Amino acid sequence: MFKGSIVAIVTPFNNGQVDFEKLRELVEFQISNGTDAIVPCGTTGEASTLDYDEHMDVVKTVIEQVNKRVPVIAGTGSNSTAEAIELSQKAKEVGADGVLLVTPYYNKPTQEGLVRHYTAIADAVAIPQILYNVPGRTGVNMLPETVARLAPHKNIVAIKEATGSLQQASEILALCGDQIDVLSGDDFITFPMMACGAKGVISVLANIMPKTVAELTDAFYAGDMEKARQLHLQTLKIGNAMFIESNPIPVKTALGLMGKCSDEVRLPLCPMGEANKAKLAAIMKEYKLI
């Protein structure tokens, strides 16, 4: 259902407020460079520091600007099942094509708790849902066997797998078959995961290099494995640079250096240190991004 290069778009700020004009410009930058779908209010979109009204205004703005040219998948995950249901229902009402649901963070549910959490959301809201496993941030790893229990639900269509483990992604693919799509949650293993059967990537790197990430996934689907492999290798260095500090600090700093939007982040995130900023700028110059 969702495949190719899917950007986890940043939320631009200006003096503490969401900069909706820049957000619209970033949407156009993505669509004009071949991005296949857009995810507002994910981790990269700093959903954790948006209040409820801001969260929904960002989702609505992206849906309005996209105007059905590509799918919009709203980040609606929460560590409260009731809140995740409420956000998902609202996203559906404003026209989202799907929702992205991060595993509950901080309260560390058991695997049985994860099954009940996602089943409750899928039962309550009839919209395509993407599970999002990112244990490095949430403190809980959704195991392949758990994904296999959820995969038959008609509203659960995919998982964004961001453990960085090709083994875990492969085990999900082996256990679930065609019952659920797998999407890479890490730019650095998009190509290897697609070689194992993943359908694409929900990408941080696409914020600054949408055309290149789209070319990688397009080449794969076109059967041009050599081009996809070369793009995979060529983007490793800049992709790794997106994580020299906590995401989305590097990607926002990069967008700021490119003049696309402010590099402003909200506390407790803070501006990139000068040494890392110089390192990032040097890498971006190698890629002719600045």
From TrEMBL:
Gene3D superfamilies tied to this protein: Aldolase class I (3.20.20.70)
Binding site for pyruvate: 44, 202
PROSITE patterns xrefs: DHDPS_1 (PS00665), DHDPS_2 (PS00666)
Domain of life: Bacteria
Main localization category: cytoplasm
E.C. code: 4.3.3.7
Catalysed reaction equations from the record: L-aspartate 4-semialdehyde + pyruvate = (2S,4S)-4-hydroxy-2,3,4,5-tetrahydrodipicolinate + H2O + H(+)
InterPro entries hit by this protein: Aldolase_TIM, DapA, DapA-like, Schiff_base-form_aldolases_AS, Schiff_base-form_aldolases_CS
GO MF: 4-hydroxy-tetrahydrodipicolinate synthase activity
Active site: 132 (proton donor/acceptor), 160 (schiff-base intermediate with substrate)
Signal peptide: none
Subcellular location, record wording: Cytoplasm
Pathway named in the protein's UniProt entry: Amino-acid biosynthesis; L-lysine biosynthesis via DAP pathway; (S)-tetrahydrodipicolinate from L-aspartate: step 3/4
Keywords assigned by UniProt, alphabetized: Amino-acid biosynthesis, Cytoplasm, Diaminopimelate biosynthesis, Lyase, Lysine biosynthesis, Schiff base
Annotated site residue numbers, Part of a proton relay during catalysis: 43, 106
Pfam family, one: DHDPS
Record's subunit section: Homotetramer; dimer of dimers.
Described purpose of this protein according to its UniProt entry: Catalyzes the condensation of (S)-aspartate-beta-semialdehyde [(S)-ASA] and pyruvate to 4-hydroxy-tetrahydrodipicolinate (HTPA).
Record-linked NCBIfam families: dapA
Family: Belongs to the DapA family.
Protein name: 4-hydroxy-tetrahydrodipicolinate synthase
Organism: Geobacter benzoatilyticus
